[in-house]
User: What shape does this take?
Amino acid sequence: QVQLQESGPGLVKPSGTLSLTCAVSGGSISSSNWWSWVRQPPGKGLEWIGEIYHSGSTNYNPSLKSRVTISVDKSKNQFSLKLSSVTAADTAVYYCATGYCTNGVCYSNWFDPWGQGTLVTVSS
Amino acid sequence: EIVLTQSPGTLSLSPGERATLSCRASQSVSSSYLAWYQQKPGQAPRLLIYGASSRATGIPDRFSGSGSGTDFTLTISRLEPEDFAVYYCQQYGSSPPATFGQGTKLEIK
Assistant: This one.
């Protein structure tokens, strides 16, 4: 069973770059699946940030595309998120997630499992 | 981008009652691409329903999904105490981005 764990600084200064890593265990990041980042501002709803395939192919939310980079490190079985030029509006719990797999087939259309999430606060 | 609008914003019911949650899309969504999640405080979302009507692994059969086109429904047949949470619909079709509804809070009456 795949498990995901986010890590990274909990506090980032305005105009800085948010950097998070998602460690994958119980499975290979090189499997036939996409790996995503989703965020949730405190008390608000969910926003999909983007996704990556082990080949390095990416898809990003157009609303964040100019500031987002998602990368994969197959040697460490992990993937990462960088969000530049952050403001207070980027304060959120950041989740990593992957596509739901059933009966040997994985679907990038919906997300399961998820990591536990990590709160990143943008403040000076 | 497809916008998903959920209603009601808050639903107050008692254990044992039936809950009906709605998700309306700004344009037609293939039912294959519509999902529902449950989120409890301090926890990550959990996938309940995918493909509009298929239950994810381990999800009790009191949860069911239906709908097509622009109107989708999540039904919980008999509410258990652990079902009180926030529910989100989500779509991700042939092109990004994936989008989520704003959520429905199901609270104990």
Chain A has a mean pLDDT of 96. The radius of gyration of chain A is 14 Å. Chain A touches chain B through 26 residues (CB under 8 Å). Residues 41 and 92 of chain A are 4 Å apart (CA to CA).
